[in-house]
DNA sequence: CACTGTCTTGCAAACGCATGCAGGGGGAGA
DNA sequence: TCTCCCCCTGCATGCGTTTGCAAGACAGTG
């Protein structure tokens, strides 16, 4: 076992016949170094395999170049997609993503955030997670910018990037009534989520405009089994809905499955189904799910813009809700 | 804007009337501190909201408590699942996951690994990514244990955790012949992957045992569109296969879609389809995909065992390939 | 009471780097 | 050739910890 002694800037300096400072400057963009020493240093660095230690640098500058991401449901494909985009976008800016699972108890989110702060992250994005506002305060007290992704807080003032969920809900309703459906149900996600509330509010608006009421309502909590139970409850009845707006695609798949497999209903003939998100699988022919598309790309772009601005000390206002679009497929 | 000055161990020390060392020791399990000072310190720490700076600690101890994960396809649900499990398992050990996307060009994997090492990660897991062996050398030279997840290297000696892909391939073949299928095709993943080679090798073995040959073969590179093209090529012919083994579930979904939607074939009546992985969607009634299940749970468990052992300086032998199981659903 | 042994505790050095400050060297202009 | 100025460079300090070392406190024993 060879001793893997770390090669430090001092090693490079000695080999190049310069001082540590010179080495440091070579690796600090925008520092004043002559081309000659820069070359010597780079050469020595290559020979020794030297690369600056991000952690040490972080101590001095206070910038760790890492962004914490806390995420809850990785089984809903919306989030892996978001993670991929986010990570790539941040890498382009020289940042990287440290992942934290907020999987279960909503209370230990407290704990999770503490752990994150221990890593001196430069920023924090909370995806699909309820942030108590005093927690937000604590983060801001630590000087860590936090942006909520796909969630909003009552108490605004928090940086949040969201789609125009209300408009999306309205579009869903309009599409369904335009199709001539009248017995329209809704399967809700977790009711603590602003996303859910806005989507449903918009949906109700849309129905009301058409002088329709909600025919049935169940809640699926954004979880697959719960959504399926919700569907079972909703359709185990004499007069069934002829359309249902499901609060996200992930649940919609589960709902379509029980409609077809357990009730022998066909979509969209017997019942139209419309989802929300437009995750990749929505386009798969097996579901061909009509849905309200969130522009994930734009959402993460807005997220990193916000982060970068806040990190640079500028204060950044939450962008207005991002536009969504109805994508018609065969399920409605 | 309040100045968010960081609260350091010195602040706590002063408030508690002790030295920095005392504070440090309180937060270092197994250090020698009297109960009395421990209480004073903890009290002061709570009052000030002090938490040790992981980065500073990392500098001294050389342990950053972060594990780098480089991952390629997040659209294949196998990997988000794995990420979730891995992150949770590591959090339980006090580690966290720093994500790196190896998205595209296989060459910049070189670059990615360099970036990772800059963060002084304590370990590295490469999921579904081809590691050149000199790259592996460089990591080991830096003293960073690396474990390959779901991939093996020709030159063994690398730590790798894989399923028994060969056995899995064999099981797929056996199941298909047992079903009486005779014109059996294979849609391969990326041929650079050991996973692919092993699955196919096992599959061929299984066919050979039954005195059958491969009826058709196309490659889908583990990507959805490519897999669909592969399926089109394979079935746009007079005598079609009556069964196909697809190298992973993700591609299998795409294949089933084109078979049904474009060729009007029904699965499994016209053609039996069998996949590999058993991702959650495989259980969805729309696909009800018969598949070879990888025990993701066991795989990540083995991965963190390996990491922890190597970090503790023990050398750890690659575990033997983990058992897979055939899960029969309706597609075959 | 003196001595020894066991716990605690503080001191100071180290980890690897960035950066303000001041000094040195060289080029340009006269 | 001399002066001035600017560009480079080295020195030293600090970032927030951990940890070996040695000294202090205290109890127990003879």
TrEMBL record, chains A, B:
Keywords, ordered alphabetically: DNA-binding, Repressor, Transcription, Transcription regulation
Membrane-crossing segments per the record: none
Protein known as: Transcriptional regulator, LacI family
UniProt cross-references to PROSITE patterns, sorted A to Z: HTH_LACI_2
Molecular function terms, GO-annotated: DNA-binding transcription factor activity; transcription cis-regulatory region binding
Listed InterPro entries: HTH_LacI, LacI/GalR-like_sensor, Lambda_DNA-bd_dom_sf, Peripla_BP_I
Stored SUPFAM superfamilies: lambda repressor-like DNA-binding domains (SSF47413), Periplasmic binding protein-like I (SSF53822)
Family matches, as CDD domains: HTH_LacI, PBP1_LacI-like
Any Pfam family the entry gives: LacI
Domain HTH lacI-type: 7-61
Signal peptide start-end: none
PANTHER family: LACI-RELATED TRANSCRIPTIONAL REPRESSOR (PTHR30146), RIBOSE OPERON REPRESSOR (PTHR30146:SF95)
Taxonomy, superkingdom: Bacteria
Keyword set includes Transcription: yes
